[in-house]
Design brief:
The structure is a single chain. The protein is an alpha+beta fold. The protein has a single domain (about 10-150), classed as Cathepsin D, subunit A, domain 1 (Beta Barrel), CATH 2.40.70. About 20% of the residues lie in helices and about 35% in strands. The protein contains 5 helices and 12 strands. The longest helix has 14 residues, at about 60-75.
Amino acid sequence: MTDFLEITLTKSLEFRCDFKSDIYGIHGESTFYPSIRQSGIKIDTGAHGILIPLRTLCWTDAQIQKILDDAIISSRKSLSVINGVESVNNISSSQLRKESESFIKNYRGVAITVLADKIVIGDLEFVDVPVRVTPHTTGNILLGMDIIKKMDNHIGTSRETGETTLLACPEDMISEDYLNALNKHFGIMRN
């Protein structure tokens, strides 16, 4: 177990690692197996924040319905539409919030912003993390810049392995082990 991420680029040119979460008291996890493309969490520097398709984490229809009902009834401000590669949206977030309950429940491009009790990425644990969850889609769990920008991070060709490697450590957790890994992989010497 380490206090930083050390990840090698996969054959499909992605950085992925294990992922666990507790959202609404429901535990979900996605283990990274290099031979299975749609597993673990994908580090996506083009994404603003964490995006979690609840079906990818095997949430049940009843669990998904509860989080969707809560968002519609108590906080429509938490509703938005999916953007980017996996986008299925053809309306804006503000338009979505004005739609009927039935429309929102059936709209495949809906996302809900929630506060995750706990997120574990590799061996790093974060608490009370804002994430966007999707009730209808499957696919990649994405780690975006909201977490990455809070870390000391480096990507480059490792001097030790010759492979493209990502090292990232929360700024407040920089340890001797992390500094040694920076030196070993990239020849970066820091105090």
